[in-house]
Amino acid sequence: MTSRERLLCVLNGKTPDRVPVSTYELVGYDTKNFCNTEPSYGELMDYIRRKADCIAMWDAMSNRRLAASAYPVDVKVKESKIKDGYETKKSVRIGNKTLTCASRCFDGVYTVWETEPWCKNLDDVDTMLSIPYEPVKYDVSDYARIKEEVSDNGIIMPSLSDPAHTAMSMMEFSESLLWVMTETDHFAKAVDILHERIMENLRRELDVVVCDLYRICGPEYMTPPLLPRWCFERFMFPYVKDMVELIHSKGGKVRIHCHSNIGTLTDLLEKTGTDSIDPCEGPPDGDIEFFELKKRIGKNVTLFGNIELKLLENGTESEVREETRRIIEVGKPDGRFVIMPTAAPINVPLSKRTQANYMAYIDEALSIGVY
């Protein structure tokens, strides 16, 4: 089997020639991915290209602005140098109110930290949602490149935000939790507004390109103990289910991305109709052991997981090999399983320990993953 055939096989509920081996955000076949342009990652990425199964994280360009709308608001951007990095400040005038946000990035770390959200209170949320809705247009001119690069080496996976996640991301996280619990009707109205917009945008995106697999990000925002089950049941489940059904109607597959505690939510996750979930974290990072998750939903949902990144960064090669064997022994029976780390390194330079552990993980998975 090619990597593409192997991954589509497990997503279709069938048993492949061997367990697919993913390296998650370390995408071997995408020349624009940072790990393929950073020299310290070079040797590992060559290894990944030769041995692993690629899931290329790629998103179409669009004219989306704020509040899931393409309405042409004027966002002013100011970037300044800070110690060991950069700070970006943004501002936008909406009606008679100015909203601001800020973020920071640091040298040698490939991620961005939000230091100030757009909305500090519910009045700010109302202001943000007062932006008129204009459907988003998608530019898929880069799709031919990524499709050619990936080819039979894997599949292509855009990422989507569900409406509850989009709403909560407007505020500082702890404030968004209070919003859900103490101003529930207001939150419900915001989610309904955003859901209508997100669904229309998704329809338009799927009209111009349908990729192999879509990752829906955001359900982890409503997992216990952050919020009780009823919040997930009311604000996550029905809206994600709508997204899944729309993607399926166009021929795509779905993977729900949900860190943290999913032990009390497995029935709801399965009922969304999703084809797969990740990263399936066990205790202490999650609340359900992998064997129990496999038993509950593994016949109907493909499980992606669950080698913890902290093990790959800090463990020994023998520990990595032992954990890889343990996870494959649980996930392998009856198929519907892709072994995958829970995240990927973002530091530069890449440490030699992390590199060696990734190689040990790949080798061990290949050596015992054959059906």
Notable characteristics:
371 residues, alpha/beta, TIM Barrel, 2 domains, 6-stranded parallel sheet, 4-stranded antiparallel sheet, 14 helices, 40% helix
Description:
- The chain contains 14 helices and 14 strands.
- The protein has a six-stranded parallel sheet with strand order 9-10-11-12-13-14, sandwiched between helices. It has a four-stranded antiparallel sheet with strand order 3-4-5-6. It has a two-stranded parallel ribbon with strand order 1-8.
- The protein has two domains: 3-71 and 131-368, TIM Barrel; 74-116, no CATH class.
- It is globular and about 65 Å long.
- Strand 3 (75-82) and strand 4 form a beta hairpin.
- Helix 2 (42-51) packs parallel to helix 14, helix 6 packs across helix 7 and helix 7 (184-208) packs parallel to helix 9.
- With 371 residues, it is α/β, with parallel strands linked by helices.
Structural class: alpha/beta
What is CATH's topology name of the largest domain?
TIM Barrel
Runs with pLDDT <50, length 5+?
A: none
Count of helices?
14
Strand arrangement in the largest pleated sheet: 9-10-11-12-13-14
Q: Main sheet? A: 6 strands, parallel
Bulk shape: globular
If classified by CATH, what would the architecture of the largest domain be?
Alpha-Beta Barrel
CATH class of the largest domain: Alpha Beta
Mean pLDDT: 97
Percentage of residues in helical conformation: 25-40%
Element order: H for helix, E for strand: HHEEEEEEHEHEEHHHEHHEHEHEHHEH
Number of distinct beta strands? 14
Strand content: 15-25%
Terminal-residue CA separation? 12 Å
The tally of domains stands at 2
CA-atom Rg in angstroms: 21 Å
